[in-house]
Amino acid sequence: MKWAERFRFRTFSHTASVDELLTELFRKSIHLSSAIVVLFAERWYIATVTGIIGISILYCISELLRMHRHELFFIAKITRYASRKRDKGRFVLGPLMLACGTLAALIIFPLHTAKIAIFALAFGDGLASLVGKRFGKIRLAFFHDKTVAGSLACFCAVFLSSLAVSKSLWKSLILGIAGTCIEMLPLKDYDNLLIPLAIGFLSLLLRA
Predict the structure, then answer these.
(1) Distance (Å, rounded) from C-alpha 42 to C-alpha 32?
(2) Considering the domain boundaries, does residue 164 fall inside one?
(3) CA-based torsion, 44, 49, 53, 59: positive or negative
(4) Contact 34, 124 (CB under 8 A)
(5) Where are the beta strands (DSSP E) in the chain?
(6) Count of domains in the chain?
(7) What is the DSSP string of 161-179?
(8) N or C, fewer C-beta in 10 Å, the chain?
(9) What is the pTM of this model?
(10) CA angle, corner 122, sides to 206 and 64, nearest 5?
(11) Is the pLDDT of residue 8 over 50?
(12) For residue 94, how far is the Cα from the chain centroid?
């Protein structure tokens, strides 16, 4: 990812906080782009599901090779650049859980419900981390790695995206609160799987 390195050094001062923010921005741009999957699934459902499965398998192969100091095309470079400090020297689960969460939503739920679930994952979890890293000054009392700004961003994103699909104000409020509560939990990368499943099932119960 030499182009990203050049952009970083030319545009920003090289500090640990800036470096962490840019890495998070790169990671969450992938996160946010998962919302596009819904558009593909509306027109090419089978191809979209097959594509996610294929990409997931390819990613697993790339990670296993990377763990043995081999690289598969450009995938390993992207993974290395986007990985957090806790992921160094380990199989990076984030992208795989993101794919699994998106795939599970498409397979388990009707497409209307899957939209709500995937949008909650893409926008809610994605924006919570970015806003929390950039503007999060006040941390939550019981979840010290979470911030008030990040949680508010998550609520707004899940609420608005759910409202855009369901057209129901009160149902979207419930989904927004639920998405925020799940995002607060210290689940690490597994929230990429839990958020779409939980929001999807809740949407079915609410008939959102």
Answers:
(1) 18
(2) yes
(3) positive
(4) no
(5) none
(6) 1
(7) HHHHHH--HHHHHHHHHHH
(8) N
(9) 0.83
(10) 120
(11) no
(12) 8
